[in-house]
C-alpha cells in the first residue's frame, strides 16, 4: 500500500475505522490547536509586555530527553497539557442558584457547533487516479459556506444559555451583549461574503456556494485583491463573531467580572474556552478559504504537479496561514482596548452594514454594466 | 482681567479639529498600535528570572542591618543604645555588658552582651546606622531575609556579626584614645 492510497483511503473510505479515525482527528486537531492557541496567547502577550511567558512547566519524562527537554520547557510547550489537566481534575462545583440543566448544557452547546463546522472544513485537495478529491474530515459533503455560517452562529446559544442559566447579573449582561453583537455583525458578514460568491459562482454550477469552487477560482490572484472592502468587513465581523478583542463584549473582564462564564469553573469553563478558540479557527479558516487562496501557496504561483507532495504542501500552506491568523487575533487583542458597547452597536449598524450594502450594490452595478 | 483673548497672557489655544475620515475609521491608529506592539515583541524581555538570576545591588543599598568589627577584630559596638532608642519600630534590643578588666580592649569598657534585631519589626529606615557614633551598625546589601519561624527572623549578636563582617576603616579611634590617655598619664608624673 503506497502512501498515496493510504491517504486516499483515510480521506475518503467509508470503512468504520477510517470514519472513526477522522472523527478522532477532528477532536485532536481542534483541542490541540485550541490548547496551543492559549499558549500562543500567553507567550505573545508576554513578549508584547516585555515578559517571558510560561517557561517552567515540565514533565520528568520529557525533561530527561537531552537538549529538547529544556527547549520544550523554555518554550512552554508542556504548559497546555498542564492547563488542560488542571481543568479536568479541579473540583467542579454546581452553584446552588443556577438553572441546573441549562447550566450543564451551555458549554456543550457552545462547543458542539465548533466541532460540527470543523468536520465540513476543506483544507486541501489531492488527486487519485486522475480524479481530484477534497481533503476534509467529512468527505463527500461539500455543503458550502451557508452551512458553515448557519452552524457556527449557533455557538452564541452556548453564551446566551450559559449567561441566562447562571442566574446572576453579570453573566446575564454578558449573554445579552453577546447575542446583540452576533445579530449586528452577522448581517454585514453575510453581505460582504455575497460579493465574493457573486464573482465566482456560475449559474449552471451544481453548488454555487461551494467553498471548494471559491478556492479553485483563486489560482491566480487571491480574492482579497478583488474584494478588499468585503475582506475588511469580513475580518472585522469575525473578530466580533468570535468575541475577540476589541469586541469581547460578552466577557469584558473589566466591567462584567468574567461575563457569561462568571459562574463557571473547572472543565465547563475549559469547554467554553476551547469553543472560543474553535470559533477563532473556523472564522480564520473561512477568511483564508474565501480571501487568501485557501491551500494555494502564493498568488500567481503555478501548482507544483498534482502528486502527494503538492497536496501535502497545500495543506501545510493552509495551516501556516491559519497559524498566522491565530497569531493576528492575539496580536490585535494585546494592542487595542475594548470598544464601548454603544460603539460596538454604532460600528455594526451605522458603519459596517451600510458599507457592506454599498459594496454589494457597487459589484451589482459593475456586473450589470459589464453584461 | 486675563482671558483667552488677552494677548498679554501666554496661553496658546490649540484648535481642536474634528477627526478626519481616516481617523474615524480607527484603522490608521490600529495599524500604528500594531506596529508599536510588534516593536515590543521583537525587543528582548526585561524580566529577571529571580531565583536563577540575581539583581546587582548597589553599594549604598539599605538592606538587612548588621554589626561590624574593625580590622583588628574588635567589635565596634560599645552598647550605647542610641540605635535602640532611635529605632522607630522598636526592632532593636540591646543587653549592655562590660568588657572584663584584663581583656585586650579593656579601655573601651563596654560591649553588648546580647544584641537582637527583630527583622519582623525592622522597616529598613537606616536611622540606626545614621545615629551610631561608632559606625558599628550598617545596612548592607543583603536584601532577602527569610525564615520558617518567628524566632528565625530575630538576628542575634552572633548572626549580626556573621552578616556584617569587618569594616575596613583605618582610624582606630579607641587605640588613639588609649595612646592619648597613656601619654597624659605619663605627663602627670
Query: How are the strands ordered across the major sheet of chain A?
Result: 1-2
* Cα end-to-end separation of chain A: 52 Å
Average pLDDT over all residues of chain B: 87
CATH class category of the domain at 65-168 in chain B:
Alpha Beta
Number of strands of chain A: 2
Q: What is the overall shape of chain A?
A: globular
Q: Please identify, by name, the CATH architecture of the domain at 65-168 in chain B.
A: 2-Layer Sandwich
The pLDDT mean of chain A sits at 82
Shape of chain B: elongated
Task: Give the ordered list of helices and strands of chain B.
Answer: HHEHEEHEEHH
Which residues of chain A sit in consecutive blocks of at least 5 with pLDDT less than 50?
Answer: none
Helix content of chain B: 25-40%
**What is the makeup of the main sheet of chain B?**
3 strands, antiparallel
Helix amount of chain A: 55-70%
Tell me the radius of gyration of chain A.
22 Å
Q: Largest interface by residue count?
A: A-B, 14 and 14 residues
DSSP strand count of chain B: 5
Describe the structure.
- Chain A has one domain.
- Chain A has 16 helices and two strands.
- Chain A has helices at 3-12, 16-48, 60-63, 68-74, 79-89, 100-119, 145-152, 155-165, 169-200, 211-216, 223-226, 228-241, 253-256, 266-291, 308-333, 341-370; strands at residues 122-128, 131-136.
- Chain A is globular and about 65 Å long.
- Chain B is an alpha+beta fold and 189 residues long.
- Chain B has a domain at 65-168: Alpha-Beta Plaits (2-Layer Sandwich), CATH 3.30.70.3270.
- In chain B, 29% of the residues lie in helices and 13% in strands.
- In chain B, the strands form two sheets. Chain B has a three-stranded antiparallel sheet. In chain B, strands 1-4 form a two-stranded antiparallel sheet.
- The chains are: A mainly alpha (371), B alpha+beta (189).
Amino acid at each position: 500500500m503506497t502512501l498515496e492510497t493510504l491517504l486516499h483511503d483515510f480521506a475518503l473510505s467509508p470503512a468504520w475505522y477510517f470514519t472513526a479515525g477522522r472523527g478522532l482527528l477532528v477532536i485532536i486537531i481542534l483541542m490541540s490547536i485550541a490548547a496551543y492557541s492559549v499558549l500562543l496567547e500567553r507567550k505573545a502577550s508576554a513578549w508584547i509586555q516585555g515578559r517571558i511567558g510560561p517557561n517552567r512547566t515540565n514533565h520528568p519524562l520529557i525533561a530527561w530527553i537531552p537538549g529538547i527537554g529544556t527547549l520544550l520547557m523554555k518554550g512552554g510547550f508542556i504548559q497546555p497539557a498542564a492547563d488542560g489537566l488542571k481543568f479536568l481534575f479541579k473540583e467542579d462545583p454546581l452553584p446552588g442558584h443556577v438553572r441546573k440543566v441549562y447550566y450543564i448544557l451551555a458549554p456543550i452547546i457552545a462547543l458542539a457547533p465548533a466541532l460540527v463546522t470543523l468536520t465540513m472544513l476543506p483544507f486541501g485537495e489531492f488527486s487519485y487516479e486522475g480524479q481530484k478529491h477534497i481533503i476534509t474530515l467529512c468527505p463527500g459533503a461539500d455543503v458550502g459556506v451557508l452551512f458553515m455560517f448557519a452552524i457556527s452562529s449557533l455557538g452564541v446559544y452556548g453564551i446566551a444559555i450559559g449567561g441566562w442559566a447562571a442566574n446572576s447579573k453579570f453573566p446575564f449582561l454578558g449573554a445579552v451583549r453577546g447575542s446583540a453583537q452576533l445579530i449586528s455583525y452577522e448581517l454585514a458578514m453575510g453581505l460582504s461574503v455575497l460579493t465574493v460568491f457573486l464573482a465566482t459562482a456560475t449559474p449552471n454550477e451544481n453548488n454555487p456556494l461551494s467553498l471548494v469552487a471559491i478556492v479553485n477560482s483563486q489560482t491566480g490572484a487571491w480574492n482579497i485583491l478583488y474584494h478588499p472592502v468585503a475582506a475588511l468587513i469580513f475580518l472585522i465581523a469575525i473578530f466580533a463573531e468570535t468575541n475577540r478583542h476589541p469586541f469581547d463584549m460578552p466577557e469584558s473582564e473589566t466591567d462584567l467580572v468574567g461575563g457569561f462564564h462568571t459562574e463557571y469553573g473547572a472543565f465547563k469553563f475549559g469547554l467554553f474556552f476551547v469553543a472560543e478558540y474553535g470559533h477563532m479557527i473556523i472564522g480564520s479558516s473561512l477568511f483564508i478559504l474565501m480571501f487568501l487562496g485557501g491551500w494555494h501557496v502564493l498568488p500567481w504561483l503555478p501548482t507544483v504537479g498534482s502528486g502527494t507532495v503538492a497536496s501535502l504542501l497545500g495543506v501545510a500552506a493552509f495551516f501556516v496561514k491559519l497559524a498566522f491568523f491565530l497569531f493576528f487575533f492575539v496580536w490585535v487583542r494585546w494592542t487595542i482596548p475594548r470598544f464601548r458597547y454603544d460603539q460596538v452597536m454604532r460600528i455594526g449598524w451605522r458603519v459596517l452594514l451600510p458599507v457592506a450594502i454599498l459594496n454589494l450594490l457597487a459589484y451589482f452595478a459593475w456586473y450589470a454594466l459589464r453584461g | 482681567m486675563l482671558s483667552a483673548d488677552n494677548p498679554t497672557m501666554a496661553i496658546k489655544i490649540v484648535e481642536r479639529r474634528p477627526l478626519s475620515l481616516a481617523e474615524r475609521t480607527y484603522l490608521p491608529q490600529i495599524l500604528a498600535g500594531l506596529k508599536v506592539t510588534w516593536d515590543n515583541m521583537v525587543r528582548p524581555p526585561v524580566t529577571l528570572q529571580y531565583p536563577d538570576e540575581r539583581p546587582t545591588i548597589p553599594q549604598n543599598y539599605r538592606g538587612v542591618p548588621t554589626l561590624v568589627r574593625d580590622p583588628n577584630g574588635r567589635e565596634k559596638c560599645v552598647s550605647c543604645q542610641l540605635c535602640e532608642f532611635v529605632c522607630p519600630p522598636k526592632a532593636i534590643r540591646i543587653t549592655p555588658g562590660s568588657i572584663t578588666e584584663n581583656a585586650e580592649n579593656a579601655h573601651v569598657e563596654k560591649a553588648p552582651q546580647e544584641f537582637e534585631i527583630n527583622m519582623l519589626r525592622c522597616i529598613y529606615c537606616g536611622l540606626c546606622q545614621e545615629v551610631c557614633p561608632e559606625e558599628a551598625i550598617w545596612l548592607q546589601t543583603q536584601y532577602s531575609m527569610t525564615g520558617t519561624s518567628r524566632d528565625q527572623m530575630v538576628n542575634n549578636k552572633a548572626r549580626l556579626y556573621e552578616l556584617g563582617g569587618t569594616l575596613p576603616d583605618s582610624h582606630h579611634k579607641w587605640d588613639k584614645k588609649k595612646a592619648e590617655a597613656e601619654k597624659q598619664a605619663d605627663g602627670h608624673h
